[in-house]
Hints:
- The chain is α/β, with parallel strands linked by helices.
- It has three domains: 5-111, Cobalt-precorrin-4 Transmethylase, domain 1 (3-Layer(aba) Sandwich); 118-226, Tetrapyrrole methylase, C-terminal domain (Methyltransferase, Cobalt-precorrin-4 Transmethylase, Domain 2); 230-277.
- It is built from eleven helices and ten strands.
- The strands form two sheets. The chain has a five-stranded parallel beta sheet with strand order 3-2-4-1-5, sandwiched between helices.
- The longest helix has 14 residues, at 264-277.
- The mean pLDDT is 91.
Amino acid sequence: xxxxxxxxxxxxxxxxxxxxxxxxxxxxxxxxxxxxxxxxxxxxxxxxxxxxxxxxxxxxxxxxxxxxxxxxxxxxxxxxxxxxxxxxxxxxxxxxxxxxxxxxxxxxxxxxxxxxxxxxxxxxxxxxxxxxxxxxxxxxxxxxxxxxxxxxxxxxxxxxxxxxxxxxxxxxxxxxxxxxxxxxxxxxxxxxxxxxxxxxxxxxxxxxxxxxxxxxxxxxxxxxxxxxxxxxxxxxxxxxxxxxxxxxxxxxxxxxxxxxxxxxxxxxxxxxxxxxxxx
Length: 279
């Protein structure tokens, strides 16, 4: 008997209409659905009047223990669909370990395209989409968290993060210490009624916006432009214009950092250098 197929089926991230016809067909026909939360999946199946297949749980706390059972069912010829609570299984959700084991056992993997929060947040951010770095949720341990924050600091690519509502303010504060005042886009409640995009320099967002700690967040961070080269002549001319207006060094540095997207420290050093030369 040939082994069954393992389907990776994306489900809506909010709006239930964001599911493909093919995904509904697969959920209708498979014998078993491995769900991150069986209660949520039952609600989805009920909404589309899909007769409930056998549901088993597959979440981050039981994935390792569940894998042998799922592999055995697949080898018995049963088709299995994997779904997460929202979006695509395996993207910051259970399934990646199962997929690795299934490949080792020569099981046919069939991934379906579909809903994910990454692409809508990226395309609506206004930042470069030519290359991007997706890092999921930041680690909670201090050492690994600092490593990721340093990676973000130095990345020339647009960076995308996920964050839970109760950690969003802490994460933004920590990010600001690493990326100076680069631009970010906060996407919240994507595809839902209260969908919201907040765009601007990170310091302005922290200071001026009342960020609702509700709904999952996607943080899109503009890439570090410093490595692409700085036109120091243009920056110096701009600084000299501002010095002529009698503005403080700190104010000028912040204006330079915002305009040319360089670090506040670098801008301040350039201001002091020119100011000293003009004395």
